[in-house]
Amino acid sequence: MGFVNRPRAERMGIPAAIFDSLQTGTVSPLLPIGEHYQLIRFLADRRADLEVYRARIARQLMAEKAQDIEAQKVELLAHELGWRIAPEGLALLRQGAKSAKGRERVSFTTEQNEVPLFRYEESEIALDEYLEVLHAHRIDNPQAFRDSAFIASVARRFLLTPAMFGVAAARLGIPEEPEVLQWIETAKEELMLLQLRQREVSASISPSAEEVRQFYEEHREKFYLPELICFDELLTPTLAEGQNLRTEIDKDTHLLELARKKNLPTRRRGADGLVCMNKYYKTAYPQLWEALKTAPVGELRGPVPAGEGYVIFKVLRHEEGRQQPFEQARKRARASLVQRLERQRFDELLNELRQKYQNQIEVYADRLEEALPEALLASATEEL
Q1: How far apart are CA 78 and CA 71, in angstroms?
Q2: Under DSSP, is residue 338 helix (H, G, I), strand (E, B) or coil?
Q3: Dist. CA 145–CA 94, nearest whole Å
Q4: Cβ 231 vs Cβ 315: under 8 Å
């Protein structure tokens, strides 16, 4: 197999702890690898050439040093500015957690969302900023609403650094620089558009169970599961190597095990240890897909061209295309319907705004012609 470094050993199923501690010539403990196990023994070792890794090590050390300096600066600023939790915000969080039923999401009024949860110098972090962090990072631990230490740790991880950097930037006069002012104006416009879309479009869309079912029935073709073929395979870089290996293989050979033994590349596999493909792979692997379709289950085939190499394979499961039942497709059907309704509502909103502010809108047809494809230009000019 030759010499391997630590990252490559991990990719081969050798834990880092074993790589670091196993003595040369000693047999390892039994190591799990997929559905099977392996024993390894290092026959020799040598030191890696420092020059090969020098640049990577330097980048890693610089990044770690920068992180340390950043953390120190943030902590110093937090202490200097008196970063602290606001009692009224904490009380409101705890109150909201008590009133929520089961796994129901905690909600607050607009006024409550503006209550401070953290304070520093003459500034504050409002409750809604903290709630947005919980939502963005999918933090659903009940302690995020009850335990002051947990709440403080979440804020320190996600809110403290940008808040302190904002103060540091203000002290240096960065927000007053022309480029920054222009960026802020652009960001404000983008945020306003996002808020408008959320308030006027997304928040108003909530299809009923009957509407979701109707959408599924009217678009059954969208929920058709394509033909699926799952197989074991052996990848070889050349046709000659594939043909030679084919002579070593019989119907009982485990191709993945053989690939690892021969140190050949392997593709990502499912929980059952198989590679699965459907018709959408035909463009990338036309010859392999046709060979898979005609191969009987359990019969060894190949080598067949596939990408930059060749494949010896054995089909182990062949599922014909079928209609996905509604219960399985419900979430996808609802998501597709919501997306369609949001798009329709957004188009309606744009038309309403165009009508309302038509005296303030001026269309530059020549610029539209340069900026938009012909099909989109036609629809845009018709609407205007």
Answers
A1: 10
A2: helix
A3: 6
A4: yes
DSSP 313: E
Per-residue pLDDT of the chain (384 residues; tens, 9 = 90+): 667 777 778 877 888 888 888 888 899 888 887 667 888 888 888 777 677 678 878 888 998 898 899 899 999 999 999 999 999 999 999 988 777 654 556 778 889 999 999 999 889 999 999 999 998 888 888 889 989 999 999 999 999 999 999 998 988 898 889 998 898 888 888 888 888 777 877 777 888 889 999 999 999 888 888 889 999 999 998 999 999 898 888 877 888 888 888 888 888 888 778 889 988 888 888 899 999 999 998 888 989 998 778 999 999 989 888 888 898 888 889 989 988 888 888 888 888 888 888 888 777 777 766 665 554 445 444 444
Q: What domains are there in the chain, each with its CATH number?
A: 6-38 (no CATH), 84-176 (no CATH), 209-217+325-383 (no CATH), 227-320 (3.10.50.40)
Cβ distance 164 to 71 under 8 Å?
no
Residue 303's CB is within 10 A of a number of other CB atoms, namely 23
Q: How far from the centroid of its chain's Cα atoms is residue 320's Cα?
A: 30
Environment class of 156 (CB within 10 Å of its CB; exposed 0-12, middle 13-18, buried 19+): middle
Helix spans in 6-86 (H):
6-11, 16-21, 50-81
**Distant-in-sequence, close-in-space partners of 229: CB < 8 Å, separation ≥ 6:** 276, 277, 278, 292, 293, 315, 317, 318, 319
Residue 207's H or E segment, with its range, is none
- Rounded Cα distance between 330 and 212, Å, is 7
Helix (H) or strand (E) holding 245: helix 239-246
User: 313: which residues sit within 8 A by CB, 6+ positions away?
Assistant: 231, 232, 233, 234, 255, 288, 291, 292, 295, 300, 301, 302, 304
pTM here?
0.47
